Amino acid sequence: MKLPTPERSAQAGIILLFVVIIRSLAEYFRLEHAYGYAIPRQILSEYVGGALIAVVATGICVMFFFARRYRSVVVLVVVTIVALLVYKVRYIL
């Protein structure tokens, strides 16, 4: 079995970060269903903060991708996922 090229890995990482952004922003609708329209601002801000981290990282990854820095994209994706997990444990759980 062949390993994916760094370019393919970078593409997969950027797609993964887009999925993380969509998932984080979709959480608003889940919370709206659970709490109604009176969603506590504290709860909502935690998910928006996580989405903001993912958006900034995705922007940087796209810039690295177009600069052909594929390994940097993969490293940044891994660092972002770890940072989001730490953020979730620290603020959301």
What does this structure look like?
Keywords: Membrane, Transmembrane, Transmembrane helix. The chain crosses the membrane at residues 12-31, 43-66, 72-89. It is a single chain. By secondary structure, the protein is mostly helical. The protein has one domain. 85% of the residues lie in helices and 0% in strands. It is built from three helices and no strands. The chain is elongated and about 50 Å long. The model has no long low-confidence stretch (mean pLDDT 91).
Care to give the gist of this entry?
The chain has helices at residues 6-35, 41-66, 70-92. With 93 residues, the chain is an all-alpha fold.
Keywords:
93 residues; mainly alpha; 3 helices; 0% strand; elongated
From N to C, what is the helix and strand string? HHH
Overall 3D shape: elongated
SS-derived structural category: mainly alpha
The largest sheet, given as strand count, sense and whether it forms a barrel, is: none
Transmembrane segments: 12-31, 43-66, 72-89
Keywords: Membrane, Transmembrane, Transmembrane helix
Helix-strand layout with pairing:
Layout: H1 6-35, H2 41-66, H3 70-92
